[in-house]
Amino acid sequence: MPSHSLQRWRHQRARALDEIEQAHTRVGGSGRGRRYATQQINRAYVVLLASEFQGFCRDLYSECVDHLVADVPAPLQALVRSQFLEGKPFGRGNPQAGKIGSTFGRFGLPFWDEVYRVHTQNGTRKARLDELMEWRNAIAHNDFPPAVFGPAPVVHLAQIRRWRSALRGLADGFDRVLQCHLTSMLGRSPW
Known about the structure:
By secondary structure, the protein is mainly α. It has eight helices and no strands. It has one domain (4-186). The chain has helices spanning 4-28, 39-70, 74-84, 97-104, 111-118, 122-141, 146-149, 157-186. The protein starts with a helix and ends in a 5-residue tail after the last helix.
């Protein structure tokens, strides 16, 4: 059974992403050809996709902390919780691969090594996550270095769909890795 965080990613967060993709279709149609009127929708989709993934990571991290703290003696729970929540994990910044690894690494595991073991595609998915975050930052800060994005940066719906697919795979992998790790720590499955 998946965590509550993964269920929310698959349902509520997916619906929000589906809504923006539907807006894209309404504006640009569903047939083949260039979509001049959809570039701003694509950019909004990129930012929303990054935001929803960050929310998933925050939810999953908090859910893991809740399970760990529940097994700590009551007088120590507030102290342990505050240590895990120091610096507001996933509350600021972007869910870039390095930040994800170091944050989930607080649970005492080589996070990305474990994620790679779950599925052979997770290395490629991680690279797509980094690419998405590069685009997200360029869009959010309106800063498109030509050396990185070319003279006329355009993001296409097909690329956003590839990023979204990669994030779906990573979310599943994160959930499995943390379930296994917490199971070994707690002696029972957290979800």
